[in-house]
Amino acid sequence: MTPLPSLQIGQYMARYPIIQGGMGIRISGAQLAAAVANAGGIGIISAVALGLNSTYFDSTQTNGRKRREQFFEANRLALIDEIRAARTLSPKGILGINAMVVAQDYETLVRTAAEEGVNLIISGAGLPLQLPSYTAAFPEVALVPIVSSTRAARVMCRKWERQYGRLPDAFVVENPNTAGGHLGAKLEELGDRALNAEQVIPALVAYLHEEVGQSIPVIAAGGVWDRADIDRMLALGASGVQIGTRFITTDECDANIRYKEFHLHAQPDDVVIISSPVGMPGRALRNAFVEKAIAGSPDLEKRCLFNCLHACKCRDEQQSFCIVQALDKAARGDIENGLVFSGSNAGRAQRLMPVAELMAELVA
Ligand SMILES: Cc1cc2nc3c(=O)[nH]c(=O)nc-3n(C[C@H](O)[C@H](O)[C@H](O)COP(=O)(O)O)c2cc1C
Q: Helix, strand or coil for residue 259?
């Protein structure tokens, strides 16, 4: 087998073409990101709502306005802690954050991450059309939008080039048919083969090469489990892969052990699609919470806690559930009442293993 190529994004060169996908809330924190970076990949801290499970947040605060202010400030301070912790664990590794455009504190989190010296910012759940303006003082920070189509990539390239005179340093292309978490397609579009890597990656690579005229790396995300999957993505023209679900069943994954064991014991048919209050479908593991969400059960807590998203059915229509609370609960180990996101490959892990061992297996 030929050795895997390295991966250059902006001015950073990773030994292996493997990015560990940002996973919120607190599924990919400092421990996981640093372990992946130390093993020659790119480690990504999820920047979303870190304040909730931090000492900066006072859960007894009853004044709604103060609680909201405090939540955002806690998110900022907790992100600083997480980035510094990761850098201490991996002084020389390539570290980045993942931030969601739909979050109200997106700009603050992105600016904070750049100030704290992260190497790259990966950004999805909306098109990060203004991202370059937030990090303009830090041109060394590589900027990587997540897209699901060439159409979205074209919008990004045109807008960034016209307005900021720069292009993205890479694109992550997420396949909504396989990836975990929020999916960049409508519910009724899921299953459409036109969304698959086999269609989207070659088309995007051709667009970037022929129309943009730049070698912008394309990173394939969704359903990548082993070396054969990596080779398949590289053969399609991708320069690397982003892997989420497989990194959950590692010793260093930052989630509670119950969360990891829930993933470990999942079966392939436990993977379901739910409607997230964000207005996108999400891929998750079946549990008591998900059953209620799918059934539209009145038992689900529908109180908006922080007004933390630009688009939210929980806030606007008192429908669905509070996504931040649901993800945070699960990450802390309440896997019955929380939301456990997962890619379509759940159920394939045999045991928890150290990241170094997993990375060695992936690149062997
Ligand atoms: C538990 C979980 C949480 C995730 N959270 C985020 C997130 O906050 N932001 C994001 O852009 N992607 C998120 N993702 C997507 C991953 O970063 C990754 O792109 C995707 O899971 C790749 O597919 P795979 O899980 O099949 O490897 C999440 C995925 C999982 C499984």
A: helix
